[in-house]
Amino acid sequence: MQRWGGLEKVSENGLSTKLLITEQYARFLDYNLCTGGSVGRTLQDISTALSTVSSSIGSCSASGLSCGSCDTLQVCVPDASTGGFKVATKLQCSTSFPKAPYCNSTLNTCSTTPAEECVSESPSVSFACTSDGYFPDVSNCSRYHYCYGDTSYNYECDVKYVYSHEKKMCVLQKLATQCVTMKCTAGLASQLVTYTADASIYGICLLNQPTILFRCPKKQAFDATLGTCQRTCSGAGKEVDEEDCTKFYECYDTTTVGKYTIKHQKCPTGTGYNADLPGCDPTFVACTPQPSTSTTTTTTVSMMTTP
Fold first, then answer.
1. What b-and-e string marks burial along 252-291, b requiring 16 or more CB atoms within 10 Å of the CB?
2. Measured between alpha carbons, how far is 117 from 115 in angstroms, rounded to an integer?
3. What is the pLDDT of residues 206-231, one digit of tens each?
4. pLDDT (tens digit, 9 = 90+) per residue, 116-128?
5. Is this structure's pTM higher than 0.70?
6. Residue 212's beta-bridge partner residues?
7. Cα 247 to Cα 266: distance, rounded to the nearest angstrom
8. Can you give the three-state secondary structure of 92-150, one letter per residue?
9. How far apart are CA 47 and CA 80, in angstroms?
10. Domain edges within the chain
């Protein structure tokens, strides 16, 4: 077996198939080593990821490497039965090269960015939607998701851009702190993590499974210690309870900037809270509650939390 000249795969019947790797792909493998890989692991991952597949995985127009899908690299060989070409093996980019999970159809290699035809409004099967709206990606700050119903869509930022959850779009990265991800502790069966760029976003990490993200109701933030969404204050003062307009919240300053002590209060019988006063008002006795559009998720199982 040559160092980067080829890979050898032994099939179940004991036959060996020599797979030629182009010089271009060889340079990519060298790049993988320079970014944290190892010769043994790289070859082992590739050998593990290679498997025989049918010609339906992707079209083959010539011998060599090509993209079978947005995240799969395939090897095409001559097909004696048709005189054309067929798929001999495939390689899942995300499995063998986590830092390059996409297949670039222009270069015909695994890449850090997807091909143009694979970007934007393509349904995502890997991100589970729990509510409508924008969500950050758990592990990649240059990627984000938009959920509508049960369908999620992936979006990828250009090079040197990162996702801003505040603006719900990609922005030019000027500081390292603009790249915000959520980290799950390896080896733990389950845990709760918060998204530091927006405390209303939190996730449940499951062992060997994708992290599932949730969104707290409006004006609430996730408390990792309690494991539930809690009311927040935008400033010192009084705020109406959107779910019961006969009640309100009193927010008091603390010694920590941006932190408040919150008390949930109820207006006297026959009154409702009038935000224009602000205070309880007899003319608001027939006030109409404004129910939240989201549902608070309460975790009752015991989990290790990561703030």
1. eeeeeeeebeeeeeebeeebbbbeeeeebbeebeebeeee
2. 5
3. 776 788 999 999 889 998 888 899 99
4. 666 544 344 478 8
5. no
6. 204
7. 4
8. EHHHHCCCCCEEECCCCEEECCCCHHHCCCCEECCCCCCCCEEEECCCCCCEEEEEECC
9. 25
10. 6-114, 123-218+298-306, 230-284
